[in-house]
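Standup notes
- HV: blocked on the assembly model, inputs below
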Amino acid sequence: MQANHALNYDYSVAKCFTYATILFGIIGMLIGVVIAYQMAFPDLNYLAGEYGTFGRLRPLHTSGVIFGFLLSGIFATWYYVGQRVLKVSMAESPFLMIVGRLHFWIYMITILAAVVTLFMGIGTSKEYAELEWPLDIAVVVLWVLWGISIFGLIGIRREKTLYISMWYYIATFLGVAMLYLFNNMEVPTYFVAGMGKWYHSVSMYAGTNDAMVQWWYGHNAVAFVFTVPIIAMIYYFLPKESGQPVFSYKLSLLSFWGLMFVYLWAGGHHLLYSTVPDWVQTMGSIFSIILILPSWGSAINMLLTMKGQWGQLKENPLIKFMIFASTFYMLSTLEGPIQAIKSVNALAHFTDWIPGHVHDGTLGWVGFMTMAALYHMAPRMYKRELYSKKLMESQFWIQTTGIVMYFSSMWIAGITQGMMWRATDQYGNLAYSFIDTVTVLIPYYALRATGGLLYLIGFFMFAYNLYKTMTVSKAIEREPQNASPMAA
Amino acid sequence: MNMETIRELQAYGYIFFTIFLAVILYSYLYHLYKAEKKGTRNYEQYSNIALHDNLDDAPVESRTPSNKEKE
């Protein structure tokens, strides 16, 4: 044996990012619930002056959950999974420990600065890329630090082969780096033309080109933040928690390359019937449909991993969270391509069906998988069993009810809206004015907001359960091999 | 060359590039099965990297040929 028997995996950075995931999850989802209720009850817009309006809060919600909750979840799982599948402890390299800590603190400062500036109304007006140029530079710095951490750990690994989750983490790193850099190419107006404040900027691209770059970025932000790293998580956590090997490792490799190849071309579907070249629209549409194959490749691979072991679904709520996540991944990767078909898009575009689709994926797939991952990590990181299985079960059902309320109301609202917009009378005049559609949709907005509220309540239960696990739960002597220990 | 021709060439390039990459992807699938059939690789064993991931578990494929060499 080597002299490393006293050595343990170092989870200090993973723990920091776990706290950040909980904090930004609460902030981002709370704002989401507020703006959802604002849609149903517009007077809620006037509660906090300019700081409480829908326009001010919406980028805070999206950035808060994507770049706050989810990125910290991705980083937390990376600092946990990375060490384990490479069989090397971060503690073996003081350099990597410093990089990890620096990564965390620069990340926290950047995201907190993002929260403050977005509240102040400072932004570029590019969806999901609202941060102004000084913060973009900070994002680049923290991303480079993450890259050093990934490749540094790979450099000192013991396990020769990179496990499939590693491929997905690396793809997340490279994909986001490329997308972020190109879409955020901006001209600081003060320094170039003496216009605006020092932190203001305009995009380097204009018109149609700007739209194409923006949606190449926007859709692939979904790919490389909402999909790729979550697949990294499920490929590690589901086999590990269930004790089952991946059903087909070869399928995981093929799906990986399929996903990488196809996803990057699909962004054009955001610009159907717009001024971008027709062939770009057609390509976007076709690639979106082909995207079903690699997406379902991974999802089915995960479901088949449970072959012969479905009893675990009854016994272990973590398996339930993960299988539900995988199922919702299948649902949203079928729904997305359907919406990208030109004729369907003519009805669906700009309607509430779109946020409905996004939330299938984010609440069902991304949210459930991230929470399940943190639940799995907690007993290993804190050497205590999970605080309450019952609470976890209740959380599962409350949140599932919330998700179903969310997407079903948005399906109905979206299709109603689309049909009303295009309805004409016998002379070809539009049958409804815009406000008619708004009036009809209000009950669905109330239902959606309540679904969101249920999900938020579940998230508080998750936070409480983890907090209790960290502080008062029964200590465990040995690290569990597979199923996470939990008190009834 | 006018703008229309450039755009047309771009579109053709795009199609050929797509077909080329699709061929590469399927060749990769063929390669995976062939490598296993010939016995040069056993991809399915890599699942064990996640299942046996304690620091003192033996790596599925060790990076250094032998630990003794290091000492």
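- HV (later): unblocked. Chain A has 16 helices and two strands. The first helix of chain A runs from residue 12 to 40.
- Next: hand off to the docking folks.
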